[in-house]
Amino acid sequence: MKSFYLTTAIDYVNGSPHLGHAYEKVLADVIARFRRLMGDQVFFLTGTDEHGQKVQQSARARGIAPQQFADEVSAEFRALCTKLHISNDDFIRTTEERHKRVVRDLLQRLFDKGEIYRAEYRGFYSTRQEQFLQEKDRNPDGSWPEIFGEVTEILEPNYFFKLRGYQDWLVDFLKKNESFIFPRYRQKQVLEFLTEPLNDLCISRPRERLEWGIPLPFDENFVTYVWFDALVNYYSAVVDKPGLWPADFHVIGKDILVPPHAVYWPIMLHAAGLPPPRALLVHGWWTQRGAKMSKSTGNALNPLDLVTEFGVDAFRYFLVREMNVGQDSDFTREQFLVRYNSELANNLGNLVNRTLNMTTRFAGGVVPAPVDSAEEEPERALKELWKTTHTEFIQLCEGFQFHLALERLMVFLTAINGHIELRAPWKLAKSTEPGAAALLPTVLATMAEALRLGAALLQPVMPSTTEKIQAALGHAPAAAWRDELEWGTRLTGAKVSPGLVLFPRPEPEKK
Ligand code: ME8
Fold it and tell me: Closest residue (by CA) to atom 9 of ligand 1?
């Protein structure tokens, strides 16, 4: 069995989870579930990024220890995973011993190889915010924004990683591995970034200013700073699991591609004698009225509110159906409701209920055997459509085009509803025409079988819905997904439930 190691970014614990975090986890989960269904042995990692100035400050503001603060917020992210039915195999926290040990080992290894050196760091420092500022933090007129208070230029000793020495190697690596980054146009952006010379990377902060970090093994007066801690999580989680490194995909947002994931990470690994990950999957942002949703802009939606209101599967469906992986999407409640009502309630929900209801009314609640000789063009057309739908669905998922895969599936579900309208089982049941007696069971069997198949395709995105539909159809799924996707007569004789409400009408919005 092929192993497939997949990760998400690890979330900062300096704020509660928002829609952007939820999306990344759902996207990665859909990939993980899809790969498992395709027969891979998946290892799926997520977690939290817990060190740094902001966590130290937030904890201090609340008068608690940073570890307690990190414990609380990390638990929120873990709870989000449970609530979203994320099938992660592990959850790593950067404050865990297993992680800190690997970070320190890696730093020591690089130090011993001469890849890390000590030098003076020069920068503009805000005492009020307790952080170094960058040129981009300045006002357009060159002054520093009010929030930073007094800003002074300071010099302090620090440790640097020799990034510059690996620039040519990285350019060469990216040119040889054209599909290292998905979508591909982002790889070009990285190469463009690499046309300018890289600076060596400052990887430390003196402990007297930042206590909340991992001490450098070769100088305990300093802690590692940001990326040397965070990125290593992908490796530290599997260091004791042979065969998993290198990761197959790191799923990340576009803000942390350049330079951390596309430049620092492959170079850090290569310098340490480890292979870089096989690929990076870079998604866009959820925005609100065009602005990135984030805790600092205060426009972050709490994903759990939507889950509570519409159910986890409707939420997962919307995120994956709406976003073209790589591009940005604006989140509006109106658009959510449009998809919920038209695609889920009216198309899928209606199909489920009609199928169960008609099987109950016209076949005593047991899926009849189709009569082959009664099959005509409409039944054959639906079977044909299924063939192209499921082949294309799989190809689209393999290329991360989940929004299009779900669109194809919706077209198939619409076609099943169309078939029901055309064949009108309620008329066939009353008809005295000669063919009607054989056509009725054939039509009922066709709609039930088509629904079973459609529900099977939904599984990576809406696992609970698939299970509910299978249970309502009295169907125990095949062990292998591929077998489950074959049109056949598996349902013949299955006892169905009389009805199933999957997508209740939402309450009118409170003003
Ligand atoms: O960057 N839409 O943590 P983070 C979509 N700890 N995705 C979004 C988003 C939005 N509006 N806002 C954030 C960090 N994200 C680091 C990562 S990895 C070794 C360390 C995504 O909590 C963002 O792009 O700020 C990132 O991939 C993830 O959420 C965590 O963001």
Answer: 20
